[in-house]
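User: Hey, quick favor. My workstation is busy. Could you predict this chain's structure for me?
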Amino acid sequence: MTATLSIGVLRAEPGTKTRGTVPADLGTLTVDIPLTLVNGAHPGPRVLITAGVHGGEFTGVDAATRLAALLEPGEVHGQVIVCPVANPPAVYQGRLGVSPLDGVNINRVFPGDPDGSPTERLAAWLFTNLVDGADAYVDLHSGGIDEVLTDFVGYRLTGDPELDAKTADMAGALSIGDVIFGMNADGGNSHAAAARQGVPAILVETGQLGERDADTARRLVGGLYGVLSRLGVLDTQPQGPASAVREWVWAAGVTADAVGLWYPEFTAGDDVTEGQVIGHVIDPADGQEHKVHTPATGRIFYGMRGLTVAPGAELAAIAAPAPRDSGDH
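Assistant: No problem, here it is.
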C-alpha cells in the first residue's frame, strides 16, 4: 500500500485523486499553484510532470491538464503529481519566457533561492515541494509565440551510468524521434538541476508559435502514457516496439548583437553549415543590415520568428548528430 501523498494543504490517500491549488509565498505576493495528486492503489515510483514553466507555451499546459483528468488511481502504481501551470505569473499575466514580476526566466535559476526575487523563490518552492522526493521528472515546454520549433526531447548527461541510462530510457518512451542531450548537468534549467540531485529528468518540447492544437496535445498525452508505462506506473504496454530515436548534442546558439528587425532565412528542422547566413537584422533607423551567420554545422531545432529583437535575443539553437562514442546515455 502506498503512503498518503501530501503537498501543502492538498492530501490524497492511497487509491484517490485530489485536485486543487497550493499557495506559494514569493515574498512580495502569494500565487496559487494548481496541482493534481494521483495516489495509486498500488506501490510504485513517484513521478512529477510540470508544464507552464514559461508563458505562451500552450501545448504542454493542455496535455498536462488532459492527463490529470484521465489518470485513475486504481490503474496507477505509485504516485503521479501533475502541475499544469508551474509559473502562474508568466502564464496568466505574460506571454513570454520571463516573468512580469521581475523579468526573470525561471528556467535559468533552478533550484532557486528561497530568499531571492519572486521568481527565484518560486523555483525554490517548486523544487522543495515537487521535485524533492520524485523518482522521475518530466517538464513540458513548447515553442513560444515568437518561436518556431521542431519537436524534441532533451536531457543532461551526469556521468552516473545508471542515472543516465534511466533518463535515456524515459526519453525514448515518448515516441518523439529526436533526442538532444547536453554533455553535463550544469545550469539553471529545471531538468538539469533535478539531474544534479539524482532525479532522472527530461525536457519535452512540442508545438510552436504559441499554437493550441488539440491533436498535438493528444499525441503528447500518448507519449506521457508511454513514459508512465516505461516507469511501471501504468500497466498499459506501448504500441509496438519502441521507436528509434536520432541522438544529437547541442552545438551552438545564435544570438542577436544589435537592435533591429529580424528576417530569418530558415525554419525549424533545417540543416545548416558553419558560416551559412541564416538571416539578417535591419536597423529601422538607418536601414543598415547585419548578416547573421551560423557558428556551427548541424540542424536548427528552434529559432526566433518574431520581428523585433534586441542584443542577446536567441535567434536559433543548433544541434549536431551525437558521436557514436558518446558513452552510455
